[in-house]
Design goal:
By secondary structure, the chain is of the alpha/beta class. It has helices at 13-25, 42-57, 59-64, 75-79, 105-120, 142-155, 171-193, 216-232; strands at 4-8, 28-35, 65-72, 124-126, 161-163, 205-206, 209-210. It has a five-stranded parallel β-sheet, sandwiched between helices.
Length: 233
């Protein structure tokens, strides 16, 4: 249906902001998560807390938020070779991307989401990828997402639309978007309940949220939050 959306929802800052974005725009919003053997699988335990918190923030969102589903795609861990699925030091590779890059991950997620959406009769997919302020992952780029949209629509004889609300904004602007969507309650919800740290560390609460403070994901989030706060002073 044209009034429904399916959000690829990890439990992180970006996908939570995208979920709020979708709840503002669509009458019925379902969420889909993926358990793929990620080192930071603590993010999976954040998802239902976040869904409940979003319902509390806005009664309209509470009415619109529908079912959640989690798919097990453990093949990435079995294929190995990345710091996101194995206990290895995070570093840059010879290909010029960090070894936290899981080849094909977002492409597979998008394909599986499209299959779920097709079966639900849902036309709109929402994904929190970004090529403005990211770790250099090729499958986060606009060209990759648009190419997948074309391939999925041809291969499934569909007219699905993949929305990427964060594609052209940096992390500071992502915080700004959250503020515009849900005010301070949404910002505080993201700070307290989302998870970004690649190492799965939730032992220390920083001003920008929980994390090790050292991995690339933590640094991006911390720098973005500092710029966001600075812009408000």
């Amino acid at each position: 249906m044209d009034t429904d959306a399916l959000v690829i929802f990890s439990g992180g800052q970006d996908s939570t902001t995208c979920l709020a974005w979708a709840l503002q725009r669509f009458e019925r919003v379902r969420t889909l998560g993926f358990s793929y053997g990620q080192r930071h699988d603590v993010e999976m335990s954040c998802r239902e807390t976040l869904r409940a918190a979003l319902r509390e923030i806005n009664p309209l969102w509470a009415r619109r938020l529908g079912e959640d589903q989690v798919l097990d795609v453990d093949l990435f861990r079995r294929l190995g070779g990345t710091a996101l699925t194995e206990d290895m030091e995070i570093r840059m590779t010879e290909q010029g991307v960090p070894n936290t890059f899981v080849p094909g991950r977002n492409l597979l997620f998008l394909m599986l989401a499209a299959i779920c959406a097709w079966r639900q009769g849902t036309r709109h997919l929402v994904m929190g990828v970004c090529e403005t302020d990211f770790s250099g992952y090729p499958d986060c780029r606009d060209d990759a997402v648009k190419a997948m949209q074309v391939a999925l629509n041809i291969g499934m004889d569909a007219r699905m639309v993949v929305h990427t609300p964060l594609m052209w904004i940096d992390k500071a602007a992502t915080w700004e978007l959250a503020l515009a969507l849900g005010g301070r309650p949404l910002v505080e919800c993201i700070l307290e309940h989302t998870h970004t740290c690649y190492l799965g560390d939730r032992t220390v609460r920083h001003s920008w949220g929980y994390g090790c403070g050292r991995c690339p994901a933590c640094r991006l989030r911390a720098d973005g939050y500092a710029a966001f706060v600075a812009g408000k002073s």
